[in-house]
Structure formats: C-alpha cells, structure tokens
Amino acid sequence: MYLTQGLKRAAQIKPNVLATSDGARTRTWSDLIERVAKLGGALRELGVADGERAGILALNSDRYMEAMYATAWAGGVFVPINTRLAPPEIAFWINDSETRLLFINDTFAPIVADLKAADKIPSVEQVVLMSDNAPSNGELAYETVLDEAAAVSDAERGYEDLAGLFYTGGTTGRSKGVMLSHRNLVFNTFNSIASIPFSEDAKWLHAAPMFHIADCLAIFTITQVAGQHFFIPGFTPEGVLENVQQHRITDTLLVPTMCNMVVNHPTVGDYDLSSLRHVAYGASPMPEAVILKALEVIPECKFTHAYGQTECAPLSTANGPEAHVVEGPMAFMFRSAGRAVPGVEIKIVDDDDKEVPRGEVGQIIVRGPNVMQGYWRQPALTEKALRGGWMHSGDGGYMDENGYVFVVDRVKDMIISGGENVYSAEVEDAVYQHDAVAECAVIGVPDDKWGERVHAIVRLKDGETADEEAIKAHCHELIAGFKCPRSVSFRDEPMPLSGAGKILKTELRKPFWEGREKQVS
Amino acid sequence: MYLTQGLKRAAQIKPNVLATSDGARTRTWSDLIERVAKLGGALRELGVADGERAGILALNSDRYMEAMYATAWAGGVFVPINTRLAPPEIAFWINDSETRLLFINDTFAPIVADLKAADKIPSVEQVVLMSDNAPSNGELAYETVLDEAAAVSDAERGYEDLAGLFYTGGTTGRSKGVMLSHRNLVFNTFNSIASIPFSEDAKWLHAAPMFHIADCLAIFTITQVAGQHFFIPGFTPEGVLENVQQHRITDTLLVPTMCNMVVNHPTVGDYDLSSLRHVAYGASPMPEAVILKALEVIPECKFTHAYGQTECAPLSTANGPEAHVVEGPMAFMFRSAGRAVPGVEIKIVDDDDKEVPRGEVGQIIVRGPNVMQGYWRQPALTEKALRGGWMHSGDGGYMDENGYVFVVDRVKDMIISGGENVYSAEVEDAVYQHDAVAECAVIGVPDDKWGERVHAIVRLKDGETADEEAIKAHCHELIAGFKCPRSVSFRDEPMPLSGAGKILKTELRKPFWEGREKQVS
Lengths: 521, 521
Fold this sequence. Notes:
2 copies of one chain form a homodimer. Chain A has 15 helices and 26 strands. By secondary structure, chain A is of the alpha/beta class. The first copy, chain A, folds into 3 domains: 7-12 and 24-157, Rossmann fold; 184-412, ANL, N-terminal domain (Rossmann fold, 3-Layer(aba) Sandwich); 414-513, GMP Synthetase, Chain A, domain 3 (2-Layer Sandwich). The longest helix of chain A is centred in the first third of the chain and has 17 residues, at 29-45. Chain A is globular.
C-alpha cells in the first residue's frame, strides 16, 4: 500500500494513453512514470530519501504532480506549501519541516531567493525551478535535473511510512504539519472512489490549488483509476470555462467560492460545458443560491459535497447528487455534509466524548485508516486531537436519523473565507502586534462573495489611535493576504467575557448574523 | 480498519432499511446489528474471542452472515467450511483450525453428530444449530442463544488481526488454512467497489455458496456500501430465476457453470429478469458460448469477470462490461481475466521471479494489501507462496500491451470443475489408496457442463483388477463427491515421465484437448 503503486498500475494498463495535459505539454502514463523514476533518482542523489522532506511552492502544473510522485518514489516526504502565504510563514513551514529541497515555479523565485539570501531558510540545500525559463538565482533547472538523472527503482515506502506533511493553521496561531502516511493517502483514494464518481474515463481539471489536500485527493485518486489530469496554474472562472470547453473536461473539484464565480460569470452561457458531468465541492459551506444557479446553468452536471479536513486525508463524509435536488423527499438535503463515507466512522459527541442522541449538536469526531498519524513534532497537540483514537474535528454538528451530518458551527475558532481556513487566533496574533491595540477579536461575518469574511473587532489602548487601513496594512506585513481582516470595527467598551474569562464571540457575532441563517456545510 | 465497521456504518445511515431477506424472514440494519451484538456477546461467553475460531458448516442463509459478523464482533475468527466435503475432510478442517464452536444448519446435523459421537472433532465444545427446528443432538438453538445473550460492544480487532481462515485445497493433497486479516478482507471490499459495480441501491442475491471467498466478497462489500442481501440456501437455476423475478434482484455473482445453467434453462424466457443489471463471475473460465447466450437472454445485464484466489481475499484482476462485447476494438476481450484492480499489483514472472516481456507466458504473481498473511501453521508453505513479498498464484498467464491478463494454464496442478478447485494431487492420493492401483494421474478434461471434469488415468498392478466403478466408489469413501473422478481410463504402459521423473501431464492431456481450445480464464 503505497502512493506510487497507482502510478505503476496506470502505466501498466495505459502506457500510451494521455496522463497529463498542461497547456501545450502532454505526457502519456509511460512518459510520466519514466520521468518520475528519473526525477526520483535525482532526488535521491540530492538527499531526498528515507523520509527527508521536499517542499513544493508553486502554482498548479503537471510538474507539481511529478514532483510529488517523484518525492514518494525516492522515499522522501513532500511538503506542499500554500501559495498565498507571506514570506515569514513560508519560512516557518520550511524550517519547521526541515525541508532539504524546494521545488518552486517562476512565481516564487524572487521570494525564495530573498529568503535564501537572508538565510531565513537554512535547511534548504537545493531549489529546483520548475520552469522552461533558465534559473537566475542559482536554482537547479527542473528539466536539466531530470535529463541528467538515472532512473531508479521505487523506494516502495508504504503503509505507515510518512508520505506527506500538510500544514494547516492552528488555534495556537501557528501552522502545524499534518503527518499523512501512505496508508492515509491511499486509503483516502478508495474512500473517494466509493463515494465520489471517479472513473477511468475521467478528464479531471485541477483548478483548485494543488497544495490543498482537496486537490491532492484528486491527484492521487485520478491516478488510482488511471483517468486523465488537466491543469491550470490557478483558478480563474474564465480559465475553468475555457478549459472545460477545450478539453471536454468531465470532472473537477471546486470550492463554493469558485463555483459561485463560474456559474455566475457573465459569459457562462457562451461556453459549451456539456462535457461536465460531475463537480465535487468542499472546504466550506455552499450557499444555496449557488447550488440553485449551478443546477440551472449546467443541468446535466451532478454535484457531490465532500466534507473533511486535512487531518482526515481529507474525506470524512460525502453527500451525492441524490441530495442536490429541490423537490421530493431529498429536497434541499444538500444542506447536509452527507454521511460517513465507506470505511470511515463518524460520531457526534459531547465534551466527554460520549455520543449524543441524533439531532443534538456536539463535536464531529472521525476514525478510520484515513486519520493522520499526528502533528509533526507536536506530541501534546497530537494526543489532544486524537484522544481515544478519534480525530476531533473541532466542528460542531448534528446527525439526523439517517446518518446525515449537518455542520452547524466551528468548535475551533475558524473562519472559512473563499474556501480557505482562517484561524482567528492567528489573525488576532497579528492584530495584537499593532502597538495601538488593546483588545481584539476576529470573527467571520457573512459575505456574499466569500461566504464569510474576516472581520476584526478592535479596542484601542487609551490615548492611542489607528484606523481601519492602518490595522489592515499592519496585518499584510505579517500574514497572508487571505487571512488579513477585510473589515475592522472599533469599540470602546471591553470585550464581553465568559465565566472562564474568554471573549464571548457568540455575542460579538450576533449583530452581523441577525436575520441571516448561518450556512451549514 | 475492521470488518464490522461496515455493518456499523450501514446501521448508522440506514437503520430502518432492509438489510437481509431470507425466505419469509427480513431484517433491517438496526435489527441486524442488534442481533450481531447479542450473538457476539453469546460467542464471547462461549469462548470465541481473542482470535479463537468459530466454524460455519451450513447452507446459505441470513444467519450465516450474522454468524460471520458476530464472530468478528466477539473478537473471534470465522472458519467457513465447504459444504461439499466428505466427513473426514470436515474433521480435518475443524481439527486443523482448532475450532471451538461450530455453527451448522439442519443439513449437517447428522454428520456433525456422528463426528462428535466418534470423537473425531474433539476441539468443538459447542455446536449451534441455525434453524427454527429444535436441536435433537444436543446442539444449542441459535435463536435461544441469541435471545438469552446480552449485547456486548465490538471487540474492534482490526488491521493485521486475523479475521478468517479459509481452507483451500493443496497440491500436497491436504487443505490448508488461508489466513485473511481484517485488512485483507476490508481492503478487498474497496478493490471490489473500485472495479465491480457495488452501489447502495443494490439488491444482491447470494446464490453462490457463502463458504467460498467469492461470495464472501459480496457479503462484506454489499454491507460496506449498505446495499441489500438476499439469500437462497443453495444454487439452483430455478431458485435464481424465481428470486430475481420476485425480489427484483439487481446484482449477483455466479460461477460460469451456474451462469450456464441459468441462461440455458428451458424456461428462462418465462421469467422477468429485467431488474438484473450486473452479474460478476469468476472462479473458473467462462465458455464463450455461455457469455454469448447470456448477452442474448439478458441483454440489459452487464458482466464483469473477477479473477483472483482465496489467498488474495480474493480479487486480483477484473474485466468489466466494456470487454463483454463481440464487435468493435474490444470484441471478445472477455477472454481475458482483465487488468489489475486498483490497489493491487500484478506481474508475470519467470521461474526466477523476473518479469517477462508482455505477451510471454509466465506465472501470475500478486502483491497488495489484499494478500493473505500466510497459511495457518504452515511457515514453509507460506514462505514459498509469498516469496519476495508476492503471492505466487500458481496460474500461468501472459499480459498484453494494455495490461490485460490472459490465464493460459494452471501452474499448480488444479482442475476447475463447476467452479470448484480440485487439486489433482488430492484425488491421486485417494486413487492411490486403492490396492489395485499401480500408477495414477488425474487431469482435467473438457466437459460441456462442468467446464472441466476430473478424469483419472490409472495403471493397475500386475495381476490386479479394478473397473471404473470400483475406482469411483473407492474415491467416494475418501473425498468429496465433486473431487471424485467422473471418468476413469486405464493404460498398460507406464506413465510418460519428465527428466525430473515427474509424470508428464501435458502429454496425457493432449488427446483430450486436441481440436479444442483450452479455455482462458
């Protein structure tokens, strides 16, 4: 049970069939496995073997996928890095994981060159530029590395061996590395096949960012079934529409914000989207208006809501096309995150981890072969998250009589904005670093475009001044743009506190959400 | 990752939906899990826990399935026993596995009572009669045991813990217990979902014997997807036809001999078979004439050829509906056993375990999370079968350029007659016990009804006499009827021998197979 096994099978049964298509570049499965075997050889020479880490900081491409498989082939561990991070955050991920080799594309060459020059990423011995352009900062050229390498045989690390480190935000304000083993990732492909349509005639568009576990699900599962991969460097609604039409794309995964931008695009009617038969979505609640619009714009297309989290590799529940209807007994059941996927156990529990009756809200906990090994070098956090052998999702929800899970709140203080998880604590940490700030609470408030938007409520120190723009600009220096507050409000009174002395965010959220139903995921 | 997890999920998402239907008796998933939890409690009281073995010697029924799940729930290991064995063989399986508790149905009550009375199965402490009739030989009554038991929580043995012992014939003439772990059996359900249609709206007819790993595949996989189980005690073509019509059966698994009897049944046209959408078949080669007839009689029904063996839990390759056509580029590709299923590796190797080029015949070897732990208490045989980490199937075959495997011969000396594996050595062992026999070779010869039939070639000792009927009758005293020679021929010259002194069966087979193409599986 190891990740590259799927690649070997695809090469065995479809050697001369298209595997990847990225712009003008196409590869068959036998091309691909040959390149992976060579790049794997190069990586091993460069020290990426026996569990050593290779980071990937790049926009989507066929080479991104090659780099992941080659790292596994060499016996290493890949570390996909969020492309929207601020440089200090990038450095933190790299340093925390002790990444020895870093794959980048042109976009990130200047940032990484700066980080290297400032000695901020000392563990990185080599940077490999995945580009047809010549390196200009001392990077190794990807195609040269590959050309000059000798193919090696697969290291065949598998089962409990670590395959990837996926960083996720944390309530403590710092990202932590989610350790996913070969078993976790391979098992997730089978959970996915069993609950989302994945078939060998699929033409899958990688439109969601490949550093995210949701798109990794598609990378590994489409390979597992020997379907075809198509790539766009980053999401734009036009990019999706054009590629679907041009390549007769059959399947993709989008977060609801993307889905919204596609189905409400002014020229959506100009494209032939008839090839599109299935869209999986997840990572955040889908507004009802978007689903309804989608069912109208692409009526032949089916939808599945996939719910999970990085720690679950990621799939935990799924809700299929039969729930994406507005009439009959299943009408509007798309409001649910669906039912436990085969092989995965879901329970709703109280604070003592006792299962609550159906219909009662508790924390959603998850168990199965997909659940992470733990947080990288964080035994205390690991033990807490995995107590009793179950992953504590941090999400609040209830289960109906037929096992449908409704996510009603985030127990962890997290905002989902445009499909990205933003941890309030991390944003608060940044806001608090402003000299004028006395007290701060960051909450999610309803936003028509982003689902939720990051909103900061600030109380200034006596005699200090700072306006909304100053707070925003301050945050932009410290954390990724998508995490920064999009709006700021000021108050003079102290924050409302709970008996335990915690800021009562429920109170703070109330005025923003009154008269609106909080979306379920 | 444990077998009863699928049952728990089905009970979570479909508590009030039909799970099993057997004659007049139906159970919902919540009925079923309650019964399993109680029977599991009873089993634990009776000593079936912590890996202790419970045998099952019975015709198909819902209770057979309950007994399997309850054994796993209790923490025990189930041992499904071939219903066609002769009493000494039954005793051998029970004794070899040290079965403590034996589930039987009425059919086997007299045989088991005799075995107990003769002290031939000393390890068996309790016999449980799965029947509505009162026990008459001191057995425990199944429903009474269940009624009086207190439900216990699942032992949750899983992953590498042993789940089942499945006995299979051996070239050494003795059955050996194939050790299948929870991981093996659970992973096989996912291999199956990924390559055979298994959907939650399936109504599956268990027509093939449940002691066989092929039907166990369906037991565990239909539960995994929360489909519905229907049972008939044993295969008859009328039973299949009537049940398909009555229950609107959608899916089933048949061996080719059964398929033949169904599609060529004189009254097949009188039944409404329109609900039948998919038939999986395996365990032996399917004659072309049967496939063609099936495509004619039930044109809406799709076929998948599943190839595997008990040691692979069992699925290794599959060949889907796209290959069951007689026109176009895939015409007659149903002659192939198909391609490696997702998650499973297949190679064709020479005697040194080196992969041979495509198109060349070698031994089919298999690797994956489905491959058995080994043979029960047979470390030498285990090491040989699993050398290099691959299961050596004993089947000869080749692979085409697109990964399609064609099985061309049995490297192991095995005859497949009516879907049952018959090991020549075991039959020869019986024939040789006849006092008049000097030399004997048992081979498979073509048979229109059974695919292959067991044929014995015998050279008698000088001055001794024995006719065909005497040889057959002699065998019937020693081994199961299906293993006994259906025909016997006599020769005066010694058998042709290889350089290594082995009987050259290829020479002996020739006159029977001349002018006929040996079927591929």
